[in-house]
Structure formats: C-alpha cells, structure tokens
Purine-cytosine permease
Amino acid sequence: MSQFNIEEEIEEIAGGEFEREPVPQSKLKNWKSFLGMYAGEHAAGTEFVIGPLFLTTGVSAFDLIIGLLLGNLMAVLSWRFLTSEIAVKRRLTLYYQLEKICGKKLVIAYNLANGILFCFLAGSMITVSATAVGIPFDMEMPKLTDTMPNGITWIVIVMIIGAVISLIASKGYEMVSRAANWMSPVIVLAFLVCGFVALQQLGVQSFSDFWNIWGDGGDPFPGQIKYTFWHVFFWSWFANAAMHIGMSDLSVFRYAKKASSGWTSAAGMYVGHYMAWIAAALLYAVYIRTPEAQNLLNMGEAPSVAPGPLAYNAIGVFGIIAVVLAGWTTANPTIYRAGLAFQAIMPKTSTFWVTILAGTVATLAGLFPAFAMKLLDFVAFYGFVLAPVGAIIVFEHFFHERMGIVQDYAEKANLQFNKSVLLAWAISFGVFYFISVQFDVFLSFLTLPAWICCGILFLILSKRTQRTI
C-alpha cells in the first residue's frame, strides 16, 4: 500500500480529523493557514465587548495601551515557545495527549469541563452577533446587568445564528480555516474604520488628544472593579490561557509544518487584542458622551455595551455585517475545539455530530447575555480553571527525562486514572482559588502561580508514584 493510501486510511479511521492519530505529513499546512485563522478568531465579535468593558473599569491611558502591548506579547511568546513547540513534535490533539498522561477515566472529566466552557465562550460570541442582527428588527438590546433572554425576537435570532455557525464548524478544520481566511480581512477593515470614525467623532487631532480619552483614568462604572496596569497586563496575557499555556491549541498547531507557525498568533494579539480592543473602546467612548449614556450614569447604571449598535452608529450597515462575521469567525473554531473535547468522551461518534452537539450547547448559552456582559470575569475564570492542566503536558514534555519519570505514563502502565494528575490540579486550583475568594485577589494574578504549582506538583507526585514499566 502506498504512503498516500495509508494516510487516507488513517484519515478515514479518525473521522477525517485525526483525533486519535498524529497528523500525517501530507496534511501539514504552512504558516499562512494559521495567520488567517488567528487574525479572524481574535479580531472577533467579543472584541466589540471587551474594549468597552475595559473603559468601564476606569483604566488610565498608560495602563491600557502599554498593559495591552506587553500582555499580548507574553501571550504570543506562550504560543510560540510552548504550544506550537510541543504540537509539532507530537502532532496530537490536546485530548488524546492528555489521555496518554492522565488515563481515559480522568480525561473524560476534563474533556467535559473543557468542552462546556468552550461552548459558553462560543455562546457569548453568538450573543455578540445577535446584537447586530437584531438592529433591523428594532430588538431590545441586552444591558450590562442582564442575565436572561429579553424577548422572543432575541431567542429566534440567537437560534438561527447558532445553527449556521454550528454547521460551518461541523465541516472540520478545513472549513473553519477557510471561513476565517474569507472573513478576517473584512473584520479587520471594519475595526480600523470604526476606530478612525470614533476618533473623528471624539475630535481627536493629535496623539495627546488620543491619550486624553483615557487620561489618568477614573472611577469604575457601577458593578465594575478598578483596573491598573497589572490588571490589564495579566488579563490580556491570560485571556486565552486555556489555548496557549493550557495547550488547547495543540489541536490546531498539530497541523503546522514548523513550530515557528506559533508566531502567527501575533496577528490575533495585535490586530485583534490590541487594535480591535482599542477601536471598540473608542466606539464606547463616543457613546458615553451621549445624553442617553450620561443619564444612565447619573442614575447609577452602566450604559449598555451591546456591540451591534456601537458599530452601526459608527459605520452603518457595514458595522452590522462586521459584527456578525466577527462573531462567526470566533465561534467557529471555539465550537470546533469543543467538538473535539466531546469526541474524546464519545470516540465512536462522528466529528460532525459531536460538533453539532457543541454548537447546540453554545447556542443555548448564547441566549443568556450574562456570558457576554460579564466577559472579563468569565474569561479570567475559564483560563484559571483550564490552564493548570496544560502545565501537566508542558512540564512532562520538557522535564520528564531530567526528573526520571515516564512520558505518557497512563498509556504505558495501562492506567485508567492517574492520581498524580488529579492531585496536582486539585491542590493548585483549590489553594489559589481560595486565595482569590478569601482575600479578594484578581483571578488573573493567580493564573500563572497556579499553573507553575500544578506542573511542579505533577513532577513530584509522578516521581513518587510511578513504578518501573
């Protein structure tokens, strides 16, 4: 049998996405595939929410602009030197690699938690798109404090958007990547135009005028906390903690020809998480100056951050289109990742159906505006929960020989449940989450300590408990 036929057979067995096999050489992709995907995924619908939310925290100009610059740099370095480095050496999905380390029974719980959290994140992106689609129907927009659906129009629009996104994601990585490449230039252009229009509306004519939009900051809006440089730095670094130090993007970069493809994450961080966040914050700065917003603030209420109206007020119909597409390009790969998580739990179920399941959960989550309106808090929690599990993979990969422990121990010892993994995660999560709650410490400050603690504990416990194979 030729090598080509062998690879085709592997793909057929794996359901077309190589969920339980290394990606073969013939299916590897160059850096351009990842550039479009990261630019599209991170210059996305949620950026229209995150930018305004930063403004509600009373952040200063220096803290926002420099904090985002350096925090996003740390995220890029994490993708390049951790995620993509391991991905091109193993070429396995996160879920299959964890199964080899943790054992099938333990990884089921992780996959379920991971898949559900990804669905909730995708749901917030569906919410974002719905705020744009609802404009022609004069739909009531969700408020910053809303948690429940506010009407039948909202429910119908969210259900339709969720169905379309789920179908695209169910077509697999090829379709996800292609959709991102098609849509990302339009979305990036929209953010740029929104930013320039907002600057004009704010009367900005010099860099000092731009800087003075935030100035020295101010008091946070009702229900928000005050952000400093360190809040912005650590939050922006760990906004995607589950994907880089949490190793979720092993499932993406396993298709990369070289580890240097990890640098393409910079397209997402600096086009999306830098330029787009600032552009969206400028849109909100325009809205805050309106009589409607000032009246709400005088009553002790935070003005709405619904992205659809913000973009529409700046650039009209193009703004509606941009917000819808931005939600799609982020929700698509997120639902794809959630589908892979569910695939690991139900390996006999096709990729199509597990992705449809993930899309259904995401759509139901999208009905509840709280996931989008509390996005800063949700993203911090989601990264904090999932990132330490990535430390298990990172510390094993780089230190197993030095520590004298067996790589992929659960697979080689035929373990269904690796207690060292569970204890390392439970202790690190429990201790640092307790610190956050008990002493009111910003959760993103504790993500890195929890990650390092989990990795070290895993090495120590594995050294003590592993037997010779």
Summary: The chain has one domain: 33-376. The chain is about 70% helix and 0% strand. The chain has a mean pLDDT of 85.
